[in-house]
């Protein structure tokens, strides 16, 4: 080894030992006859000292010439510092250097390599290898590493087998677009990269591997939104001979294990909520339940009082912000403007303030008597000091808008603490959702999800009302995982494909192998997949997944560091039997 | 859970307990009033019993209708067997069934699902999900799982960080062909799938993650030979601030850990051998050292005695097969025919038999005196009872041919026991190798491998003689891993590209980001990658990697189960700005 210790491990115990450290020059302070160098590696910082008189002149000169990010090895004696730094793990000691070797010089980096940097997004992406040197970024990848190891530890202990499923599979463009890979040896044919290992993990259940997991890259060729990546990582899991309850318990266990082992947090009880309730009470299939502020529907109380807006609305619905009666008129106007922005799309907002003195003040006082408003307040369970905010209109729209408002109020009132974690299982998702564009039903989860047995007759009469054996795990308003009990017989699977608008030929071409597998003894099974990048971001207290990915792509799907994608040679295209044809677009 | 226990866990302790098992029907024996069913799951087999009189008639009828591979759940009481089967883990008990539920029926499988099967290769590949039910195949994937977990356990304990590098990267067609992925959002441009995460792991070293590993899928678009797969798995590793010796020690540690934790074998000392010695003594850069039988060069003894074949040969070289003097003339003739096959390509073979009585008999008695032959025998260190086999010709060819003969003799003499493991580090590989086809030097390992400092001047005068800081780990004659100390400065890297025939522009376009990274403080570093599929096969005692891969492709790169690759829709092609152009070929 080119070092005897790391830059994070020396303490007073090591005083008088001769050591060799190696790392990067973080900072040089040169006071003429006295030079301090902070040497950095993955494990920490250690101060080196070079002193006129006790160090040789040539050594001092060498130290004086060190620049930021030079790579050096330094040999010397551990000494006790006179000016101690209790905030640094190695702050009680320093190294009196007797030998210094420059292992590699460094150009001046394009941005400051410290927790607070002056580098913009583009620059840090281009020099991602320098950005990764910053402690705050490095810690995110270290967290990710820890999460991976602990996930595997738990799954292995629960008898799950990690199986690598293929990356070169077959294009089945249900859902998002596939990335495809031209086959050289099968001209005119293409592999596809998996959007998930769904069919393979189901085949593993048919094979009898009753507990499977994998931490696996998946691919979606989507138009990238702010926080999506074309390649992302899933914790992918499947179990046979289980009920939905068994799956929830098993993976509640995983999440609890991760919280306790990685963050030292006891997650406690994980609530369950139906999709229907989530929509009714939070207007959202991934409610943030760190705070309550449930929706209260006011149709009965608010309609029929000649207030046309409410009378014409399908739904009048509001929230009660506890203790927010102090909001000024200006603040309330700002909220009204906020919900009227096109991103939210409300037509307006009604407020009802429950003053500390017990009186009620609203923006619709002329339509409603104090008794009417008191009835509202009672419906909200409001107390003096609370502020009620009410939206109305088309039921789905109003709920969606109110959900946004609720989250904003939660934020403003400090109810969404990043260090508080509230997990929630959302259950009984609809099987199908209507797609306006294609005018047909799509599978809400995926075509392999089983309908609830008692709802199957509805497939013919009211497909949108059919509930699925499908569930999501939500933490703090973020969906971190989702899954379902699968279909495991050919007839039901074929029925599903028919309802999804597949012709028998299409279904056979794309998923014939799976339906055939179901005929050779497929056990009841189900599973779940977690968005690993997302879980890491939540554990790290971040909104964005990008920093939890070592080498992410930008919003145009480019890796600006290696400059990819790029053109390829004509011979490569010819070997692959394809041509670029830009004019088609 | 749809079961209370697995089919592998019930013992005499459980007698009288009521249990529910679920699994597949392995076998039904129907003796009229008495039916036995062997129920199978991943964990084992348990015998179910249905008896007239004590079981209801309807239950007996149901049991009688079970077919092979039906999926059932059975509830009943654990009872002690009268006819015990000590060979089965659950052979002391059986389940007297009170309730039987068919969870799924099964068609008759296309081949027998037992360790010994009647299914041919193609059929088992098409129904891979059924093949995976066979115990012998399942165990291979379970071994692979264990190997993965233990690899991570070791690496994590050694402070290595697992980092996922991107799968959508950039085409750099040095070495094998890349698989490419057309980018929809960047028309006319392509990603490539990684042949290895080489440049990324080096960038991680530049980032200061001084110990990286990953168990990662890699891709090579090669014409598939018998035991190659287009996608394969590597244990990919890199370390900074280390010497070659540190790397050898660290990964010797990994291999020892795997042998002890997975197979309970103490691997003992790992030998080192230079590439030059491996070629000289074994004619092979991956010698099987489970047995000795080193090459002995006979030029001095064999030439100049008017035996034209030897006189005209660049090299006369042989092996001594201990105790093989009993080989008959017929057996020796067969060996001669064997080395003359086109796959080996020798012109002939000379033998020298050291008879038990001390006399010597050879096929060249008329050219060599008994004293001459005795001198040969002495050079071989032969004793009465040994058989010496000698080849000659062009030195490289003769060594290669003799290496094959040595391995065959080792096999025939039972010296290559699958349960004996002899690891070996082969060191000091050449940096470059001459490619006849392109008439230029290629990097033997890859272009990032550092030359030995003392050999750098030879780059100008005798490039083929430059040795690299490169090493392979060989077990039982199979290369399981290889790596090198890398170049970590721009000047040397550029020099290498020049010697490999890159123009400055090409080098910059393909690897500019890496060379630039070397200017911002790159530490000395090196690493290794292990062929994970191969290591699993060796641990499992198999020659072929295919069974250690859950869903392998066939030799034409097809997945015959899902029927991939396949054609894709015209709209997909259009979105990707490509056309299929079969006529080009």
Automatic annotation (TrEMBL), chains A, B:
Record's catalysed reaction(s): tRNA(Asp) + L-aspartate + ATP = L-aspartyl-tRNA(Asp) + AMP + diphosphate
Domain Aminoacyl-transfer RNA synthetases class-II family profile as annotated: residue spans: 141-552
Major location category of this protein: cytoplasm
Entry EC no(s): 6.1.1.12
Region annotation Aspartate: where it falls in the sequence: 198-201
Pfam family, one: tRNA_anti-codon
PROSITE patterns: AA_TRNA_LIGASE_II (PS50862)
InterPro entries: Aa-tRNA-synt_II, aa-tRNA-synth_II, aa-tRNA-synth_II/BPL/LPL, Asp-tRNA-ligase_1, Asp-tRNA-ligase_1_N, Asp/Asn-tRNA-synth_IIb, AspRS_core, GAD-like_sf
Enzyme class at the top of the EC tree: ligase
Keyword terms: Aminoacyl-tRNA synthetase, ATP-binding, Cytoplasm, Ligase, Nucleotide-binding, Protein biosynthesis
KW Nucleotide-binding (keyword) present: yes
Subunit comment: Homodimer.
Purpose: Catalyzes the attachment of L-aspartate to tRNA(Asp) in a two-step reaction: L-aspartate is first activated by ATP to form Asp-AMP and then transferred to the acceptor end of tRNA(Asp).
NCBIfam families named among the record's database cross-references: aspS_bact (TIGR00459), PRK00476.1 (NF001750)
PANTHER family per the UniProt record, alphabetical: ASPARTATE--TRNA LIGASE, MITOCHONDRIAL, ASPARTYL/LYSYL-TRNA SYNTHETASE
Stated name of the protein: Aspartate--tRNA ligase
Organism: Algoriphagus jejuensis
Gene symbol of the encoding locus: aspS
């Amino acid at each position: 080894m080119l070092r005897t210790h790391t830059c994070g491990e020396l303490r007073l115990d090591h005083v008088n030992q001769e050591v060799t450290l190696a790392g990067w020059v973080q900072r040089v302070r040169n006071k003429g006859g006295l030079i301090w160098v902070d040497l950095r590696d993955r494990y920490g910082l250690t101060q080196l000292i070079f002193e006129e008189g006790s160090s040789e002149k040539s050594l001092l000169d060498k130290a004086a010439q060190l620049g930021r990010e030079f790579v050096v090895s330094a040999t010397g004696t551990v000494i006790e510092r006179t000016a101690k730094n209790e905030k640094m793990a190695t702050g009680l000691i320093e190294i009196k250097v007797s030998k210094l070797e420059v292992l590699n010089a460094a150009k001046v980096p394009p941005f400051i390599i410290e927790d607070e940097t002056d580098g913009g997004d583009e620059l840090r992406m281009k020099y991602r290898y320098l950005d990764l040197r910053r402690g705050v970024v490095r810690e995110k990848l270290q967290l990710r590493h820890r999460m991976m190891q602990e996930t595997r530890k738990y799954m292995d202990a629960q008898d799950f087998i990690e199986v690598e499923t293929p990356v070169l599979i077959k294009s089945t463009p249900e859902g998002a677009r596939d990335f495809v890979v031209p086959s050289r040896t099968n001209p005119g044919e293409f592999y596809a990269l998996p959007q998930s290992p769904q069919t393979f993990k189901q085949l593993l259940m048919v094979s009898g591997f009753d507990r499977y997991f994998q931490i696996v890259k998946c691919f979606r060729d989507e138009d990238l939104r702010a926080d999506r990546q074309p390649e992302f990582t899933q914790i992918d899991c499947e179990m046979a001979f289980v009920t939905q309850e068994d799956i929830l318990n098993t993976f509640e266990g995983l999440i609890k294990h991760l919280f306790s082992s990685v963050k030292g947090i006891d997650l406690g009880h994980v609530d369950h909520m139906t999709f229907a309730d989530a929509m009714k009470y939070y207007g959202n299939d991934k409610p943030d339940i760190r705070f309550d502020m449930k929706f209260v529907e006011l149709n009965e109380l608010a309609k029929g009082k000649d207030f046309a807006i409410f009378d014409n609305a399908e739904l009048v619905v509001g929230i009660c912000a506890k203790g927010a009666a102090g909001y000024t008129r200006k603040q309330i106007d700002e909220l009204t403007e906020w919900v009227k922005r096109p991103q939210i799309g409300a037509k307006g907002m009604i407020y009802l303030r429950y003053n500390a003195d017990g009186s009620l003040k609203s923006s619709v006082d002329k339509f409603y008597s104090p008794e009417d408003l008191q009835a509202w307040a009672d419906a909200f369970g409001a107390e003096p000091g609370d502020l009620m905010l009410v939206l109305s209109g088309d039921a789905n729209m109003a709920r969606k808008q109110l959900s946004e408002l609720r989250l904003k109020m939660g934020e403003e009132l400090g109810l969404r603490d990043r260090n508080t974690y509230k997990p929630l299982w959302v259950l009984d998702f609809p099987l199908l959702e209507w797609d306006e564009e294609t005018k047909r039903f799509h599978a809400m989860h995926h075509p392999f999800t089983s309908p609830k047995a008692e709802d199957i007759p509805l497939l013919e009469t009211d497909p949108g009302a059919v509930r699925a054996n499908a569930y999501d795990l939500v933490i703090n308003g973020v969906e971190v995982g989702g899954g379902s009990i699968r279909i495991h017989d050919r007839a039901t699977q074929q029925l599903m494909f028919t309802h999804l608008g597949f012709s028998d030929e299409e279904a056979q071409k794309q998923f014939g192998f799976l339906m055939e597998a179901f005929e050779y003894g497929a056990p009841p099974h189900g599973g779940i997949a977690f968005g690993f990048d997302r879980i890491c971001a939540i554990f790290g207290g971040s909104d964005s997944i990008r920093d939890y990915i070592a080498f992410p792509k930008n919003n145009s799907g480019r890796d600006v560091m290696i400059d990819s994608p790029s053109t390829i040679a004509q011979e490569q295209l010819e070997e692959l039997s394809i041509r670029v044809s830009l004019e088609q677009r």
